[in-house]
Input
Amino acid sequence: MSQPAAKHTFQAARLRDILQLRFTDLFAGLPAHTLEPISPASPWKRLLKVLGYAGLRLVGNVLRKVRNPEQLRGKVWLYVVSQNNYDSLHFLREALPDSVLVAGQSKQIGRYNGQVNRLSLRRKLLYYGQLPAVYRALRRTEGKRAGRFFDLIFNALGYYEVYRRALRHYRPRAVVLANDHNDDARALLLACQTEGVPTAYVQHASVSTNFPPLGFDLSLLEGQDALDKYRQCGPVAGRVALVGMPKADAFLARRNTAPAVRRVALACNTLDDTAALTATLDYLLPEFPALTFTFRPHPGDARDFSFLAARHPTLQFSDARCETVFEFLTGQDALLAADTSTHLEATLLNVASLYYRFGTHTGPDDYYGYVAHSLVERADSLPELGAWLRRYEACKPLDLYQRATYYNATLGTPEEGHSRERAARVLREWLADPDSAARA
Output
């Protein structure tokens, strides 16, 4: 193999590692309405998306110089890719005085957009010359999926190289991430590994066996469930510590003690079918007129659900971009949802939670294994859902939260409610001696 060919093959393999989840059967099998905003089905729409990304994001980045309010050199970077990531890592900003929150130049962090420092992506445009050769190499390994997700390949190009340059320029003491599968987060992880920058991972939500193997020097996981699943994903690198759920600490003392269900939340994500969600609400509100129902879409769900307000005037709404999940759950007695980590968060607060699939999409059943491990019950039809709700409308147990012990290592221990201190302590010890992860 010639040197240029070998180089392109290596670049394609690296990009495949960055986009690991995007080439799986799981991702390709997502419902059309879920996949459409990520990667449109129409090749013409994908092309328009690429052109829009190039014009607005890439050229826009070139025209905007990054001016950060904080010094990034030599600091501990807390790298975030979403509002949920920020909620999971911001406690370390206070616990580690030399830490700074950072994100990619144009990354949308919801209500925290103005509270994070930015890593310049102006030079990302320089690496798109790799595209033809890398695409050909990916066609050989991924087949038609390389064409189907051409826009995602285009978007991911250049992250690794730009982040390597940023690491060499700023020389952070370490990088802490709360995401292990988004393209920019994985690119930063690989860049850190190449540049010898220590990396740590703080789990921000429930994980599945479809995630990439843990590749961090230190991984702070919430409980045994996460570790068992990551062991199924592949070899576990570095040191692992089970620290509980830091973002839940402030709310565990506010567990729901209502003896019966009066307030019911229906949480949906982009996998859930609009017609099935509507049918469920059409059944529930007339069937349970004494209960208060609140509808909460995922913060990344771009669908317009305003028609539900006209259809059901008594239905309340929660905006996930303005109200954290724990803030929301403190006002609820029961949760109805399909595949979402909100089930775990609800159970921790002793909110009765039921697994119910809205529609018959091809995604995996019980994706997080909550039903299989008896965290929550399930219903497979509207009559079953109604029967479950009537039971809890009559009496809600006060010990539901104990079901979450497998998922939260501090639950029922003296450190319950102190996961932040535990996580910060482990991180400080590791930062004092990062090589300890390799010896663990």
Remarks:
- The chain has a mean pLDDT of 91.
- The longest strand covers residues 99-104.
- The CA atoms of residues 24 and 210 lie 9 Å apart.
- The radius of gyration is 22 Å.
